[in-house]
Amino acid sequence: MTAASETRRLLRVGETPRSGPVDAGSLERAIQGTVVVETDFPAALDRVTEGDVDGAVVDHHPAGFDGIAFLRAVRQDLPSFPVVLVPATEDGGVARQAVDENVTAYVPASDDDALGIVAERVEQHVMVRSGESGRVRMPISDLTAEEEQRLKERAMDEAPVGMTIADATLPDEPLIYVNDAFERITGYTKEETIGVNCRFLQGPDTEIERTHEIRDALDTGEPVSVELRNYRKDGTLFWNQLKITPIRGKDGEVTNYVAFQQDITERKEAEFQIERERERLQRLLDRINGLIGDVTEIVVTADSTDDIYERAVERIGDDEAISRAWIGEYDPGAHVVRRRADGDDMIDLTADDAAPLATAVDEQSLMRLDDSLAGPVRCREGEEGVVIPLTYRRTTYGVLAVYSRTQSFDEEETTVLQALGRSIGAAINDLLSKQTVTTDTVIEIGVELHDETTLTRLSEALGDGAVHENTLIRHDGDLLLLFEVEGDIEAVVTAAESIPDVIEATVLADDDDPMVEVAVESPPFVNTLSEYGAQITTVEFDANAVKLRFRVATEQNGRAIVDELENNYETVELVAYHESDQPAQTRQGFRATVEDELTARQLTALQKAYVSGFFEWPRRSDGDQLAASMDVVPSTFYQHLRAAEKKLLTAFFEGQS
Questions:
Q1: In the record, which positions carry 4-aspartylphosphate (predicted)?
Q2: Tens of pLDDT along 555-573?
Q3: pTM for the whole structure
């Protein structure tokens, strides 16, 4: 037989035996032998039982390949076949099972030098000698009694989990064996532990229920597994995962107890930390849900900004974790905050002691307060505080200051407070938007947008062939533009429909005074003005610019709209900005009242009839053309129009009574 034929053949078994710390390639180089790989359980077992290999290195993973099951299957036919078990992690339960199944060696993959240890065990236990009969294994049974005993002791000594053996036949069941891992875990030496009961690990915080559970199991000769607090020699507490198995003699009586100890302190502390965090978050969630729900109801039902401020502060201040709270209104013109508490203090944002408020307003960000500040912003003794801006998009309407003596404002808390600030800001914006219709005084603003837009491109495309007569804004924000055609009507329609964002161009009249209606997708300025509650009075445009006139209730919203427009368009020229009075019932207010009564179809029918000259005499368009432009039959168009006319007249005459 050649030297090559005498080379040991090792079986590498597992789900991914070619990867990990003990991969087949590295193992083959380490033992200078041949390593064959199998991932299939039956195929690997066949190689062993058919004598194709001299030993096996087997993976074990709780959710993967079951190395314990493979070891058990091998031991049914080959009690002495060398098997090295490589579990994915150190586990006292797996180690105990491996020892029970007479594993040759136990080397966790988590060991720093798992590959080197496995190679060393292979050298010790997988031997080859030449002869006519080929390779002959030398199992444990071939060793002398002394060698076999020493081998088993070494396996126990080097096990990665603590192992002890107690004599059940002696009073108080003293320990007769402890391994090296037990010494490392507990700090007690073999000399200090042999001959005494293992209860010396117990202490003041050891759970009495667990010790009773252990005692009851030992009294009945049953195995037991518990997790309990134990103490090291230096007095430090650790969590011990303890598993005890009784060993019976030939007469069935318990002669010994084998115990496995594993330090699981890190795992238990992580579990406790998770549980504490879960309880804390649940308490926070319960409290926050109530706060958010109440404040949301307040901002939805409030009928004035004063109502929002008063009720929101009262509810936030009632929260168990909040010691006090106040809201301040921001005046952008004077750059001050008017604190709505304790005499309506005026806080100058240019002052040093108001720096956190100024930053919160200018940067729209939460800022922390402390006792180093002066004036009304300052935290009182034992308090922590934060100030939250009350914002809607780019507008800051005020600030909310919140203080607490019982907690720090952590990430979850400040996230919720910022959300409340945005909710209050949106509610204020909504109320101020409504005031544009009902207030006696408004801000009138005119701007010109000099960018290239859909409207400027449309004007350039139509040229002298059409004259812009009117603009209507539909309920969905799209624009309806009415053009009186002075050239070829088909050319006007074709030119209009060639512009991006033009939805359609419809001929409303093609007689002596031809008219075309052009529908344009909602441009950015419509959304901006709508969100801040502005009332658009005119929309004019030519090939060079779009000219807008609109009204808002407050200076903040006016500034915010101009800022938004400057953000959306490259060149925005402010051409008018002044305060003016308006009658109690404004044109916009009357229109808003009517629009609330009209359906979308009724409003469209009324708009189309008006802008197309349907009410003029002679009519510039007829019902058939307008019905076609709405994609309905004439009878349906007239039904919508009559209903709209009735609602319009009702609002007019009943409003005058």
A1: 59
A2: 878 888 888 898 889 899 9
A3: 0.44
CA dist 67 → 88, 139, 151, 190 (Å)? 10, 20, 21, 32
The pLDDT tens digits of the residues spanning 331-371 come to 877 888 888 765 557 888 888 778 888 889 889 899 988 87
Contact 496/518 with Cβ under 8 angstroms? Answer: yes
164-185 mean pLDDT: 90
Task: Assess whether pLDDT exceeds 80 at residue 146.
Answer: no
Query: Distance (Å, rounded) from C-alpha 562 to C-alpha 588?
Result: 21
Same fold, 162-263 and 302-432: yes
Q: Find where tokens 């004439």 sit.
A: 634
CATH number of 584-657: 1.10.10
In terms of Cβ atoms closer than 10 Å to its own Cβ (0-12, 13-18, 19+), residue 2 is exposed
Compute the average pLDDT of residues 37-52.
Answer: 89
Short-list 215, 211, 216, CA closest to 227: 211
C-beta of residue 260 within 8 angstroms of C-beta of residue 165: no
Distance, in Å, from the CA atom of 193 to the CA atom of 528, rounded to the nearest integer, reads: 81
Domain ranges of the chain: 4-157, 162-263, 302-432, 439-582, 584-657
Domain covering 162-263, topology: Beta-Lactamase (3.30.450)
**CA pair distance 13, 43, nearest whole angstrom:** 10
Q: Which of 541, 554, 535, 547 is nearest to 576 (CA)?
A: 547
DSSP label at residue 131: -
Query: Given this model, what pLDDT does residue 187 score?
Result: 93
Homologous superfamily (CATH) for 4-157: Response regulator (3.40.50.2300)
d(CA 119, CA 24): 11
- The pLDDT of residue 290: 76
